[in-house]
Amino acid sequence: MYNFKNDYTEGAHPNILQKLIETNLSQQNGYGEDEYSIEAKKIIKQHIQNEKASIYFVSGGTQTNLLIISALLQLHEAVISAQTGHIYAHETGAIEALGHRIITIESMDGKITPSAIEQVLKAYSMRPHVVKPKLVYISNSTEIGTLYSKSELADLYAFCLQHSLYLFMDGARLGHALTAGNNDLTLADIAQLTDVFYIGGTKNGALLGEAIVFNNPSLVPDFDYIIKQKGALLAKGRVLGIQFLELFKDNLYFDLAAHANKMAMKITQAMEANGYSFLTYSTTNQLFPILPKSLIQKLKEKYLFLEWKEINEDYSAIRIITSWATNEHIIDEFINDIKQLKVLITKTI
Amino acid sequence: MYNFKNDYTEGAHPNILQKLIETNLSQQNGYGEDEYSIEAKKIIKQHIQNEKASIYFVSGGTQTNLLIISALLQLHEAVISAQTGHIYAHETGAIEALGHRIITIESMDGKITPSAIEQVLKAYSMRPHVVKPKLVYISNSTEIGTLYSKSELADLYAFCLQHSLYLFMDGARLGHALTAGNNDLTLADIAQLTDVFYIGGTKNGALLGEAIVFNNPSLVPDFDYIIKQKGALLAKGRVLGIQFLELFKDNLYFDLAAHANKMAMKITQAMEANGYSFLTYSTTNQLFPILPKSLIQKLKEKYLFLEWKEINEDYSAIRIITSWATNEHIIDEFINDIKQLKVLITKTI
Amino acid sequence: MYNFKNDYTEGAHPNILQKLIETNLSQQNGYGEDEYSIEAKKIIKQHIQNEKASIYFVSGGTQTNLLIISALLQLHEAVISAQTGHIYAHETGAIEALGHRIITIESMDGKITPSAIEQVLKAYSMRPHVVKPKLVYISNSTEIGTLYSKSELADLYAFCLQHSLYLFMDGARLGHALTAGNNDLTLADIAQLTDVFYIGGTKNGALLGEAIVFNNPSLVPDFDYIIKQKGALLAKGRVLGIQFLELFKDNLYFDLAAHANKMAMKITQAMEANGYSFLTYSTTNQLFPILPKSLIQKLKEKYLFLEWKEINEDYSAIRIITSWATNEHIIDEFINDIKQLKVLITKTI
Amino acid sequence: MYNFKNDYTEGAHPNILQKLIETNLSQQNGYGEDEYSIEAKKIIKQHIQNEKASIYFVSGGTQTNLLIISALLQLHEAVISAQTGHIYAHETGAIEALGHRIITIESMDGKITPSAIEQVLKAYSMRPHVVKPKLVYISNSTEIGTLYSKSELADLYAFCLQHSLYLFMDGARLGHALTAGNNDLTLADIAQLTDVFYIGGTKNGALLGEAIVFNNPSLVPDFDYIIKQKGALLAKGRVLGIQFLELFKDNLYFDLAAHANKMAMKITQAMEANGYSFLTYSTTNQLFPILPKSLIQKLKEKYLFLEWKEINEDYSAIRIITSWATNEHIIDEFINDIKQLKVLITKTI
After folding, report:
1. Which chain A residue is nearest to residue B62, measuring alpha carbons?
2. Spatial distance between the Cα atoms of A277 and B271, rounded to a whole number of angstroms
3. How far A153 CA lies from chain D's nearest CA (Å)?
4. CB B197 within 8 Å of CB B216
5. Which chains touch A (3 or more CB pairs under 8 A)?
């Protein structure tokens, strides 16, 4: 069985493990004051072209989201998110557990627009009987594989600035967004067009780790306290530093994401060649093809994936995720299986 | 200008003020251990026919809701509410500030059904990546004036018991529900068909005060701690005890609510007689008539009320609330004004 | 039995009840937008000589303390309080429930000094592994009856400003402090020498109510949201407004407190005349006389009071509290009883 | 410079890194459902001789402490800890940030006794005006290197059971406790004499990771939700599973701790041989020798350690920590340096 369920089924890119071994017995300061973390932050600052940014490494995505939002908001301030947003759909109420309402926006493509936010602001105007919308949470790529263009992001940030809203980009799959064929954003653009974002490691070749970037550190002068208080400060911070040191040395981070996207694109092309459509338009590593249920049953004998949504009596959408570790031979085999099975199914009918 | 904006524009029923004066210099224990509070609880227990219930008096509705929900839920447990529910629409995120998500149900009549809850349970099944629905919050009468029938409530409670959900009824306007023409519930029924509910005083003739009733006290053995910790324990608890002592002595509570409903019914009949319809079917003290905008403009010269919702270019729904203190002469005048203004408007056109 | 246990055993000063009756049927805006609240705030601003202050009325002391501290601090910021501070000793962990540590200072007289705070700052310097002290909580009069002098308060505030600490004065018994024989502070001084304080109503003749004063409103631009979210916004805010309107019209607030102090002073003098000493030096309405246990036993037959602390085999300190409602005849009787009982006890021995 | 500051200056035991490499490309379920985590839990259950225990792997100590305490307590319930307890002294108010007061006990040896708890219960009896003590937090070995004996732990647990208190043992350095010369406890004993404890990996050879053991899982049926909600659920849970799989296969965990203790014991003997005493009686890997300040200055030229506490004008206590990675040659050199420097200093004087 080959697993397409997510992008964290394998361990880490071998360079990272190699570096862990090489550095293992070097005595280092704890709590992120080690030389690898310091060096990794330096390299990331060069990538984002912002020497003044504050960078912090923590373990995972939910932790990252709750730390950032906790740092930026008071209890009566709320988050605006797409209904598909990870913080709303998959994080066990972590944001509400901090005390904040998430106001959701229904969105076909998983993205948020200024006009949708405007509606929220209008609906939440009866001060003080309602919460105060204060932070806009977006994901890039989104939870359904779509992307923000540079102009979309610029418009969104301009709107946020104008309405005293923070803009926070969840970059759990930022690498996949930035290496997609139709992307026109750079890391440096994102650092200019958001208040805070993070660069996801876990879903792009790290054992664990996300890099939080505050573009203007004066927003959160006490973030170190918050990381520690929430239990997110690793004693051996070196482990996180080494992940990002290896990923951002020599462009590995982008190469890994590009591979995942390329594998996904091969599947996309094969699906289209076989006449199958998609639930969402994805150019990244998450695909939602709509397939005959009979074909899905057959595929399940060899492959693991999520059955996402029933479309009608005969068709369902499934979710397939590729990653830095996806084996191209398997993709070819999968494509071939699709083709063969299609023939078989057609015959059966 | 006469104010129809809400049911708390006047002070308290005179009996309550009289009792405050009579008892003023009697030395009493603090923190609800006074003899008036003790007596009031005794009388309420007789009304609900449950000697074992635990009763607590606190100041207001938002406070009540947050105390009860805080006592019953752990952080990863969520509340299910209609989208119109007071806790979702008008309480500044008080429940989220405790750490709980409110999962909303869209509902035309402001009420919740077992089948709607079933949908929620299905949508929140991906443990542990989603919150755990654990408490169903309903209001009776609802925020849009509607009522639960006995069979509806019985079905809802049976469903909740079966699915290990708590059922909590917000009774900010419970008096108005129980004295509505089409009501078939009693206080004793409610004590049997919910886990916890409260009897609203503020909106039915008290200076302040809500009576929380836990039908089975073993659910919340430490509620006294929670009241104190959240700043809801009045040093002079006598003030709250006296409100409920007067309201529940000699049926005053029900008489006051019946008056409010009767005043509303007069308006309803007049509206219908003039050919106007309503946004919601209300037999209680909140009305949402749909009126010509020109008529609304004229009414605004003499009356205060909320403009609730635009219906189309010519019509809007307004909200009118009557109360224990509503003067019947004013109602007659208002009805007459409607009739006159209708003629006037028709002529103008 | 006459009750000396606390200063909230009776109802309210009759003027307040009278005003409630007079204004009862006047229709008023809810949520503190009534004309009585507006007028009361105006008068208080004159007293404190700060037109720019923000004033809010809420129900009780614990609620007040938690609202203020919640508004001012982030989760990793801590409160410094005397170990006897009400927030530490009597409020069921309300401050910790908000998420903040209370760092306590042992203090013989219930007061806090700059040098004691300096010790705390030193002990909490290992950032980010410890919380960040950020707010100094003091009570005036203190929980053991003592007072801050003007120079003490000025020194404390200068220290706080220098170290970026907020200074918050709990004034549950502020009237008793300001009318004590040895007091040299005014309300206007306090408004200049703290960031925020409150004027206690409940313990000085109100049915309920505390007046929160932010001397510089820009500190807490969203305090209205916080009051609502924590369930502290009364629908009939008029009830609170009327308390303070009556208390601050014609100096009633100070007259009531002066009476309580005068009654306490009569007891103090009698105790001293009989050779009894005190646990703390109080010139306000809380006394802690040290009495023979045999005398205490006799007194308990006629009076209610707290047995505070055992001193040795033969003596204990008790706590006696007088109030605006304390009857001078009873005080005279109590003093006479002390004298008589002392003779009796001496004979017995 | 050689670093004795803590037991997390190096990476991980090589076996762990080797296993990460071996298993790297095996596709595994996320969120701790991988085969390594499952196997590791199985082995730990054998060690503790409790097949029914629930075991969870998380990243670090502060995270572990806050997860467990959050799961067990309601907001009005408090923790009892020694003043030296890690949750009180070094975790940035993480427990208070959950909403719980930590009630501290002053203790010379860092341990808690039933009689000290009894004092706390007495001091916190004025329900509902004070928090309710509900959980006793102990560390073994303690933050100052001391140990609980089996009879001490048995007495403590019996007391806790009798008073409905939970007993939670922080085992950040549990390996060092269990392999100390004067230890008489086993892992199985601890599983019987606590409600919950954790086995620390980070300070004993893991890259990261602590193993939480609930001896009776019915205490916390929803712990999986809590781990996820607090951001502590690693997507690649395999990373944690592999740490404990290697540590508990073939007794590595105990061997590593025994090495650290042996290195510490060599230092202890050398200190004593040179006539130096200790601040605390430690048989584990944390030592607090009291040395002449002149000697400390000299040592600082070659070694890193904490200056812990000034004893008098001439002497201070320092803190030295050894670990699984401490090089015996360095220890010998350090011992020799002490000896040489002592002679040198003596001559100088």
Report:
1. A129
2. 54
3. 27
4. no
5. B, C, D
CB of B8 less than 8 A from some CB of C: yes
Dihedral-angle region of residue C61 (phi above 0 means left; psi in -120 to 50 means alpha; beta otherwise): alpha
All domains of chain D, ordered by start, with CATH?
14-250 (3.40.640.10), 253-348 (3.90.1150.10)
Contact A129 B78 (CB under 8 A): no
Q: Does C123 touch chain D (CB under 8 A)?
A: no
Helices (H), A90-204: 94-98, 114-123, 150-162, 174-178, 187-193
pLDDT tier, B52 (very low <50, low <70, confident <90, very high otherwise) = very high
Is C302 part of the contact surface with chain B (CB cutoff 8 Å)?
no
User: Which ranges constitute the DSSP H helices of C274-327?
Assistant: 293-299
List all residues of chain D from 73 to 92 with a beta carbon under 8 Å from chain C: 75-76, 78, 89-92
Report yes or no: C19 at the B interface, CB cutoff 8 Å: no
Q: Do A90 and B131 touch (CB under 8 A)?
A: no
Chain A positions in Cβ-Cβ contact with residue D23 (cut-off 8 Å): 11
Instruction: Please give the residue of chain B at the shortest CA–CA distance from D74.
Output: B74
Calpha distance C316→C296 (Å, rounded): 8
What is the C-alpha to C-alpha distance for residues A337 and B123, in angstroms, rounded to an integer? 32
| pLDDT computed for residue A211 by the predictor | 98
Closest partner CB to A239 (pick from D66, D207, D229): D207
Count of CB atoms within 10 A of residue A196's CB?
Answer: 25
CA torsion, points B71, B75, B80, B86, in degrees to nearest 10?
60
Query: Which residues are CB-neighbours of D55 under 8 A, at least 6 positions away?
Result: D41, D44, D45, D211, D212, D213, D214
CB-based contact (8 Å) between D347 and chain B? no
Judge contact between D345 and D13, C-beta under 8 A: no
Which A residues, 140 through 169, put their C-beta within 8 Å of a C-beta on chain D? none
Contact yes or no for C61/C221 (Cβ under 8 A)? no
Residue range D142-196, pLDDT digits in tens: 999 999 999 999 999 999 999 999 999 999 999 999 999 999 999 999 999 999 9
A170 in contact with chain D, both atoms CB, cutoff 8 A: no
Q: Would you tell me how many other CB atoms lie within 10 Å of the CB of residue D115?
A: 9
Q: Does B123 touch chain A (CB under 8 A)?
A: no
Angle subtended by helix axes A35-48 and A238-248, to nearest 10: 40
Could you tell me which chain B residue has the CA closest to the CA of A62? B129
Whether residues C228 and B11 touch (CB distance < 8 A) is answered with no
| Residue A281 CB neighbours (<10 A) | 13
Nearest to A103 by CA among C228, B102, B135, C224: B102
Can you tell me the distance from the alpha carbon of D246 to that of D278, in angstroms, rounded to the nearest whole number?
35
In this prediction, the answer to ipTM > 0.90 reads yes
Confidence of residue C346 (pLDDT cuts 50, 70, 90): confident
Give bridge partners of residue C278 from the DSSP assignment: C289
Q: Which two tokens stand for residue C227?
A: 């009051």
Q: Which residues contact B53 (CB under 8 A, 6 or more apart)?
A: B45, B191, B213, B214, B215, B216, B217
Mean pLDDT within C82-86 = 98
Structure tokens at C141: 């009069």
Q: What is the largest CA-CA distance in chain C?
A: 67
The answer to whether residue B97 neighbours chain A at the CB level (below 8 Å) is yes
Long-range contact list for D272-276, CB < 8 A, 24+ apart?
Answer: D274/D338, D274/D339, D274/D342
CB atoms within 10 A of CB A340: 11
The gap between the terminal CA atoms of chain D, to the nearest Å, is 27
Angle at the Cα of D216 from the Cα atoms of D211 and D220, rounded to 5 degrees: 75
Residue among C75, C78, C90 minimizing CB distance to D129: C90
In angstroms, the Cα distances linking B328 to B260, B324, B325, B335, C324 are 10, 10, 9, 10, 42
